[in-house]
UniProtKB/TrEMBL annotation:
Domain of life: Eukaryota
Descriptive protein name: NADP-retinol dehydrogenase
Organism: Carassius auratus (Goldfish)
Pathway assignment: Cofactor metabolism; retinol metabolism
Enzyme superclass (EC): oxidoreductase
Stated family: Belongs to the short-chain dehydrogenases/reductases (SDR) family.
Molecular functions (GO terms): all-trans-retinol dehydrogenase (NADP+) activity
Coiled coil: none
Catalytic activity: all-trans-retinol + NADP(+) = all-trans-retinal + NADPH + H(+)
Entry annotated with the keyword NADP: yes
TM stretches of this protein: none
Gene3D superfamilies linked to this entry: NAD(P)-binding Rossmann-like Domain (3.40.50.720)
EC number, as in UniProt: 1.1.1.300
Pfam families linked: adh_short
Length: 320
């Protein structure tokens, strides 16, 4: 028994030594792509959901540093103001505002959009960034399962309410933050809200697949409007997104060397928002600032159209 423990300890020590020796190379690989664009955004208006922390805050910081007027749409206004203060401190003259938005409540979404349309004349960049991951079974105010309700339906409604302004402000862009997890997702039309059975991981994957299908169908419907929409996989990022899963939080802590920082994770969102070469590119998926693979179920046009119709019905809207 003692010999086994010694061998295990020696093995762990060897692994730790190797990781330490190769940590610069590992970190460089894990960091992924960097947005190469130096485009300036003076006179442009950007709206980012969930921008009080993580990649949302870093996206806001980057766009503000390029001269954009950036609106942080946050459920927690106090944290949003803290993020805005930090951005103003780091970027002299940054034009940053905070507005309350709870994507788990359609009344909050509608109130946000109504005020936004009254007070903001243009919208050039919409980043649907906010999300929830692997939470216990919960429902939104409107009775939707939380993952599909926040990650998909909340952003679906927000985009619907703001798409007219995006068209009037064209050329404009929509960036949808999805995930590699869409590869493991299926749209369970027979039980979209997981009332029959619930698995937090599968619910998350379903919502990320919904993001992919929404991007695809929205791009088709916006063709010719000079409004583009693309989805992104930010990579595996150290952020608050894992707060609902103790096991995943521990796993991420152990392998933190292999994870992206929020700044690194924000690079592809920024790339899709500003890169000149993407001006006319729409309906595509990106990771590490380059085109990325989309699972077959994420390319299914019939499923995309069906999900669109079901989403409109659930939200009580007509979006042709």
């Amino acid at each position: 028994m003692m010999l086994v423990l010694v061998v295990i300890a020696a093995g762990l020590g060897l692994v730790a030594l190797i990781l330490r020796l190769f940590s610069p190379q590992i970190r460089k690989y894990a960091a992924g792509g960097v947005c190469p664009s130096t485009a300036q955004l003076d006179g442009k208006v950007a709206l980012i959901t969930g921008a009080n922390s993580g990649i949302g805050k870093e996206t806001a910081l980057d766009l503000a540093s390029r001269g954009a007027r950036v609106i942080l749409a946050c459920r927690d206004v106090e944290k949003g103001e803290e993020a805005a203060t930090e951005i103003r401190t780091r970027v002299g003259g940054a034009k940053v505002e905070v507005r309350e938005l709870d994507l788990a409540d359609t009344c909050s979404i509608r109130a946000f959009a109504q005020r936004f349309l009254q007070e903001v004349d243009h919208l050039h960049i919409l980043v649907n960034n906010a999300g929830i991951m692997m939470c216990p079974y919960m429902k939104t105010v409107d009775g939707f399962e939380m993952h599909i309700g926040v990650n998909h339906l909340g952003h679906f409604l927000l985009t619907y309410l703001l798409v007219g302004l995006l068209k009037r402000s064209a050329p404009s862009r929509i960036v949808v933050v999805s995930s590699l997890a869409h590869n493991f997702g299926w749209i369970r039309f027979h039980d979209l809200h997981s009332q029959g059975s619930y698995n937090s991981g599968l619910a998350y994957c379903q919502s990320k697949l919904a993001n992919m299908l929404f991007t695809r169908e929205l791009a088709r419907r916006l063709h010719g409007s000079n409004v583009t929409v693309n989805s992104v996989h930010p990579g595996t990022v150290r952020s608050e997104l894992m707060r609902h899963s103790t096991a995943m939080s521990l796993l991420f802590a152990v392998f933190s060397m292999f994870l992206k920082t929020p700044k690194e994770g924000a690079q592809t969102s920024v790339y899709c928002a500003v890169a000149e070469e993407l001006q006319s590119i729409s309906g595509k998926h990106f990771s590490d600032c380059a085109p990325a693979f989309v699972a077959p179920q994420g390319r299914n046009e019939e499923t995309a159209r069906k999900l669109w119709d079901v989403s409109c019905e659930l939200l009580g809207i007509e979006w042709d």
